[in-house]
Specification:
292 residues; Jelly Rolls; five-stranded antiparallel β-sheet
């Protein structure tokens, strides 16, 4: 969630928020104006309340999590960090015999003003460790409790319906009424297309040594250096300091010129700059001697 205010609203829940004793649950803020967030549950007679942390009205994204053990505790977490707990063993059925509301209470009142994403409901108690590990990430089949994910709305649909990404209830979609879609400005996309991978190392080494790479080997990597017509020439090209041995001194010279793009003595691959390709070319023939 992301917001700049903490009034008495219903962030998500299944209850009529006119009274904290009404059956169901709700994520809200401390009455009347926060600053801490809270969770209220009740069965129509008995209620329980737990308070989270203040400071989530800073306009930044935060993950609010709660676990419910009706024979034990309700536990609250902000951004994966445990905050508080309260005994809820005296509270009975939380079923309000109604649907789930996101951004308002059961009657469409107490409307929340802010952004929401990544709404997840589990059919099991998620551990402290897993709550912390997945607090800032989308969940997938690698999550230890993936098979117990009852509902999962990523809320990136930009449509009149929210698709459910849960493996158990893929058709439990939700409708959107009165919300405004926004592009998540905190999304960061990394481009690794120019970054060597571990699988590239053997291919690069074999290419530099003029070894034939057979198709049946089914290697995934690519070569970051060009092949040489004469192996000894390749070795000597990597002898940056000219001492006849490709060793630590040559690596240090490459590191000292790393990033150079003009007149670079350590450009062993002749690609116009001193970069990771030159370092890889040294490592593939490290320890070799060439005639001088």
């Amino acid at each position: 969630m992301r917001t700049n205010e903490t009034p008495d609203v219903a962030i998500i829940g299944n209850k009529d928020w006119d009274s904290g004793y009404n059956p169901g649950f709700v994520f809200s803020f401390e009455y009347p104006n926060g600053p801490a967030w809270k969770v209220n549950i009740a069965d129509g007679v008995t209620r329980a309340d737990a308070n989270g942390s203040a400071g989530i009205d800073d306009g930044k994204w935060h993950t609010l999590s709660a676990t419910f053990d009706l024979d034990g505790l309700m536990r609250l977490y902000t951004d994966g960090v445990f905050l508080s707990e309260v005994n809820i063993s005296s509270v009975g059925n939380l079923n309000a015999e109604s649907g789930l509301m996101i951004g308002a209470d059961l009657n469409g009142a107490y409307q929340y003003n802010g952004s929401l994403a990544e709404v997840r409901i589990w059919e099991t108690l998620v551990s402290d460790e897993d709550i912390a590990a997945w607090a800032c990430s989308s969940v997938d089949s690698n999550h230890p409790n993936w098979s117990s994910l009852a509902s999962y709305w990523k809320m990136d649909d930009n449509d009149d319906y929210l698709s459910n990404s849960s493996p158990n209830n893929p058709f439990l979609d939700a409708s959107v009424n009165g919300a405004e879609w926004q592009v998540a400005d905190s999304t960061i996309t990394y481009d690794y297309s120019e970054t060597p991978r571990l699988v590239d190392v053997p291919v690069t080494a074999m290419t530099h040594l003029n070894m034939d790479i057979l198709p049946e080997w089914d290697l995934d990597g690519i070569s970051w250096v060009g092949s040489c017509a004469v192996t000894e020439d390749c070795y000597c090209l990597n002898d940056v300091n000219g001492d006849g041995v490709i060793g630590v001194a040559d690596i240090l010279l490459i590191l000292s010129e790393f990033g150079c793009t003009f007149g670079c003595a350590a450009d062993t691959t002749s690609d116009g700059s001193v970069n990771v390709n030159d370092l890889l070319s040294i490592l593939t023939v490290f320890g070799q001697a060439c005639e001088i």
